[in-house]
Amino acid sequence: MIDFTQAPLKFWLCARISFVIFQERGKTFLKKIAPRENYAVSNPGNHLRHLWKAVLLSKALALLPVSAREIIPDNSKTFSLKNQDQMIEYINQVQSSWKAGKNFHDDTPSDYLRRLASAWISEEKLLLDTHEDGSEVTTYTSADPPAEFDARKKWTNCPSVAHIYDQGSCGSCWAVAVASVVTDKICIASKGAWKDWISSWDIASCCVGGEKCGAGCDGGRPDKAFEYYVKKGIPTGGEVGSNQGCMPYEIKGCSHHMGDKGKFPNCRSYNETVVPTCVKECPNKSYKTPLNKDRHFGKRVYHVKVGDAKKELSEIGPCTMSFQIYEDFYLYKSGVYKHVTGAHIGGHVVRVLGYGTENGVGYWLCANSWNPEWGDNGLFKIIAGTNDCNCEQYFYTAEPKL
């Protein structure tokens, strides 16, 4: 028998991965087996050899605190933007910090919207802020960072810094954010000499293994993706259709609200089914460098304390931010976002480019990965100093090895 009280988080993660892999078969199995309180999982039979993990979900979930349950989002809940007009009107009436508006069609598929928020946000800070001797991981040259900062204005010789990515219908925000930060950091460290792109598709495809890293388009952990960069290395790869690097991204984006005038197919009829698969050769056959010779490695990965984030951003470069998102975040158009209304959807990871103050409100400047049609040309500002949506708990980055 399994003692669910000993390691509920571990079993919760196993159960969620079981649902990801087996989908409806796992759900059917859970419905049949979960009510049996004394069900023994030690020998469920060959035909149920893998599916037994699904039963752990109903048992373990009840034992977890709310914050731990949010590590992997529950995509079974209904989420729709059919009533977004009313929510937009309400948000704009009750506050003036940010403006809400339409970024998606009313009938954008729920599955597409939910996959945009699939990050696993761990409560454990596995990456130390100090070395074993107690010294700080990173030493900054300035005691006082500038009052406001925008990485796009400082590192103009690195085109990746200003680029807005598109994760498409894949829950790969964790991989896209990490790859984009690594791309920026290599270019910055090389003083603009390196202008390639690090492959987010490789991270989504190969940095897998449940709670240890990720599950492709069903979410993952940015801290573990950075560790993957240090230990395994990541090849080059641009966006879908770019023909850049060894392993370009493979999932097309879709136009959110532009109708037939958008750059991509309309999200209302979007049906992308590509599944990330780890490969041993460069998918881009026109790229001449072998995959095993194309990997770029990091020296170290570290957690940036919120008190050091401004120094990190202004001196060294972008980092990732992990936070919880709610329905109202999908409606952001401009201003300094703070959660107003709507249900919790899941975890999300973005790239932080800078910080500043707008109308007396401090903010973090972030680049989203929902293409330039979303928000403020793909960017958003989120309130600083209040840990809104837990946005100031998990800043991660890495130092490249040139």
TrEMBL record:
GO terms assigned for molecular function: cysteine-type endopeptidase activity
Keyword annotations from UniProtKB, A to Z: Disulfide bond, Hydrolase, Protease, Signal, Thiol protease
GO biological process, one term: proteolysis
Ranges of residues in domain Peptidase C1A papain C-terminal: 145-399
Top-rank taxon: Eukaryota
Pfam families registered for this protein in UniProt: Peptidase_C1 (PF00112), Propeptide_C1 (PF08127)
This protein's record includes keyword Cell wall biogenesis/degradation: no
Gene3D superfamilies: Cysteine proteinases (3.90.70.10)
Hydrolase recorded as keyword: yes
Family to which this protein belongs: Belongs to the peptidase C1 family.
Protein name stated in the entry: Peptidase C1A papain C-terminal domain-containing protein
